[in-house]
Each structure stands twice: as structure tokens, then as C-alpha cells.
Amino acid sequence: MVNNLTYVIGHKNPDSDSICSAIAFAALKKAEGVENIKAARAGDINPQTSFILDYFNIEPPVYLPNVFSQAKDIMSTDIITVDETTPLKRVIEIFRDKNVQYIPVISKHNIPTGFLSPMDLANMNIGQIEEKTSRTVFTSLANIASTLNANIHVDSLGSGEKLFSAYIGAMEEASFLKVLGNNDLENRIVIVGDRERIQELSVERNVSVLIVTGGLKVSERIIRKARENNVSLIVSPYDSATTALLVRMSTPAYKLCNKEFEKTSPDELVDDIKDRITQIGGHGIAVLGDGGKLLGIITKSDVLKPSGISLILVDHNEVSQAVDGADKVKIEEVVDHHRLGNFHTSYPIAFMCEPVGSTSTLISERFKRNSVKISKKIAGLLLGGVLSDTVILKSPTTTIRDRNIVEWLETKSGLNHTEFGKDIFTSTSSLKKQGPYNVVNGDYKIFEIKEKKLGIGQVETIGFDEFYNEKDRLINELTKIKEAKALRLSALLITDIVIGTSLLLTVGDDKVINSFDYPKAEVNVYELKDVLSRKKQVVPHLLNIFNSIY
User: Fold this and answer.
1) pTM of the full predicted structure?
2) Which residue in 10, 148, 214, 405 has a CA-CA distance of 20 to 30 Å to 318?
3) CATH superfamily membership of 432-549
4) Which of helix, strand or coil describes residue 188?
């Protein structure tokens, strides 16, 4: 299972404030002694944010497409395995000593051949008792010697495995020869004590293996004859009955294991595994990596493990805007400046949602209030986040707290906020260079009320001439999102930061659009004079429209 890790992460389609506040808040937490915390993002970096990050030579946060728990997050890796040639006796000892419920049998390349459980062994033993061929045992001389802890006097078989029939020479000569028979003697194992005549007859008949029990000394004459006749000869320290039992327990694990077992990849979602694991027996599910190598095992108890991932949400508090799977993991904290959405937890958390112009303002205030040393880079990053979200302090969402923190950040970063703000917006003001997809999706948020959804993006520009040239392409992109997300309204707010006015480009249901009270500039375009803030000036009005007509 992965170590516990907390991600500080903003909303999908992150804007500059979302990315800057995530990086800075992770840095603040680390400075305060929090371990295993990392900044992340739930979407692509837009051009404006790229400019800010490049300005300070800061790497973008790690991309998290989702935080759904995967097989690799919950699998057990401290598993006991045996290789394919391990004798059954050793397997039974592991079951006894380690108190495990199953043992994977793996090849020399760590690829699982199958699984063994106590029930598999019980079924095998019962089956052998019932079969007429109960004498048979599949094994090798090496496994027999290992299981018996025996001394090998003659080895004529090497490491080869074969199917043997085992006989105990505990009878008179005539009876023994009758039981031994005359056919297929090269596959016979004879187990005998100090009956030298039985030993001799076995060697003369060219049995495959002669096992002398009780740790008894074997005469040089018998050893010499065994070599001459290519008969393997070993001495067991056990009596004949125990030796016979242990010979049966020398069968290699791969011949006994259940080769039909459930498999999964390390990336399969735990929710999908839960559905599968209820249908299987006690072996669990094998997690296989490249080349089919065994990485871990997932049992029914493993799927109940809590995720090793937790989140701190910045710049949003609605699940619909959060990274996919956020509702499946622990959310430790929220720092935001938007309206309250449909967010809830089953446990208390730290929750800050205050009416300022930027989440970066709130993070900066935490640095200042907690007397945490802030680097010039992080101060500059946070300054960029504040200036972006407040449109260089021109947005109606701007508060005295934003203005005060900008002065503090100027001191800490050595930057002039007016010049830096102009650089930020000038660097990404061309709609044509960005392309319709990036313009619409760069800062696009979806809101829901009464189970009806609307989406609205925002882009800042200098002048509207370029917008009208790109209008048709932007409408096509808005239409794609509307259909893909099943939206009742898909819109884009185009804001001229110089004159402080916006245009609203819309695609949606007629009854929504007909409810607008904005002046219509042309088809699909509405003029919003003195409007700079989507959050404060546009979204509340649209939500009221939805609330009244649905």
C-alpha cells in the first residue's frame, strides 16, 4: 500500500489563482512541519499560469486525473511465496508457522503459476486416498532428499521430475517380488529398513530409487550394485512409515497449486475490484505488473482499507468542480473565496471560505499571520495569483484585504504589482494564439442547481476586435462542452481589462437565454458593462435564473 500522502489541489480547469495557491499552501504546510504533502492540479495549465510559473522558474504541480483508489494503493506486498519446486512438506510448514491462508507459487521470473490454500491440500489428500493409484507420487530425487533430510549415496536421476510408484519392502522376499511386479520398474521407489536381501533384489530389478530408512548403514556391496545398475540410493533418518508419508509430501508446489486464479492490473479501480472479489474464493486477486510479474495480492479485507490519499481543496468547495474521486477520499481542509456549494463531510474539518478577491490572498495572510518565512519566489507566485483573480485589483471582488496583502507581497517579492500585472495579462491576451479550445476550457467552471447544470468560462483580453473574429470558433467549442456535459447553458465571459467591460457568449436552452436581462449586442452575444467578475457579478444572476425557471 502506498504511504499516506496529502495533495493540495485546486479545481478542474485550474486558473492562475488555483495553481498558485496550491503550490504556496503546500509550501506553507511543509514549513510548518507537515510531512507527505504535495501540490497537485486537476487539469491543464493555461497560458497565463504558465507565464507566471516560468517567470519564477517553478515547476507545475503534479497532474492528478483522479484520486480513485487503485489496486496498487491497497494491495499487500509483504506476501509469502514459494517457488515452483518447493516440496509440499515445506508449504505445509509455512501454513503452520506463518498462519497464512494462501501461498502464491511463482516461477523464477516472479510470475505466478497458481495459488495454494489449506483447502487445496486437503482436497488433494482426500483425492489420493480414494484413487486406486494411491501409490503414485510426482516428485524428483532432489525433492525427496530435501523433504527427508536424507543422505544421497547414489544419484542417477539428477534434477529430473517424474511420476513414481512407492512401495514399502516390509514383507518376505516372495511376497515383495509379487507386489513389486515386473513392469515399469524404472519408475518404482522402494522404501526398506535393514532387510539387505530386499535392498539387493530392488537394485537387481533396477528400481528407480531405493530408500533405506532409520538412518541405517548401507553396505558397500549394495552401494556398488546401485551404481552399476543406475539405481539412486538415499538414506532416510526416519522410520519406514514416516519416510513413506514424507515421500508423498515431496511433490513440487506447482503440481498441486490451483492455476485458475483472479488477476488484475495495478491501475484497476478499487470500486471495480470490490465487485469482483465477492465472487471468488479465498485466494484473493493477484496484482500483476509488466510481463505478468507478481506485484501484490488483494484480499477481501484489503478492499476495506481507507485510501492512502487525502486532499486539501483550494479555490473551490464544490464536489462538481473537484478532482474526480474527491468524494471517495478524506478531505482534510478547504481554503476558498467562492460561494458555498454542495460540500459536506462525515467528520469535522478546517474550512475557510472568506469574501476576498483571491484564494492567494488567504494563503498569503496565513504566511503573515503565522510568521512563516516566505521566499521571494512563493511571494511572487502568490502576488500573481491575487493580480490574476482581481484583474490587477480592478475587479469588484477586490477587497481592502487584497490591497493590503498585495503591498506585503510586493515587499517580500521585490516586484511592482502594476507592472507585473500588466506583464501577466499582456502575455496571454491573444485569443487567436490560444486557440478556441484553450480560450474556452482554460478557466471553465460548472455549477449545478436543482440537478440542472450550467458552465461558464472566462478569459481576459485587451479589446474585443479579436473576439469577433474568433466568435464562430468559440461557439463551436461551447457547443461541444454543452453536449458532452449535458449543460442547459454553456457560456464564455470575455473581459476587456482595460475598459473594465465584458461580453457574454452563450449557447443553451432558449428559456434560459430568453430570461437574460443583459443588453444583446448580436446573436449569442450580450454586453455586460462594468462587469469584471464572473463569481460576483455573473454566476449569481445565472443561478437565480435557473432557480426561477426550473
Assistant:
1) 0.65
2) 405
3) DHHA2 domain (3.10.310.20)
4) strand
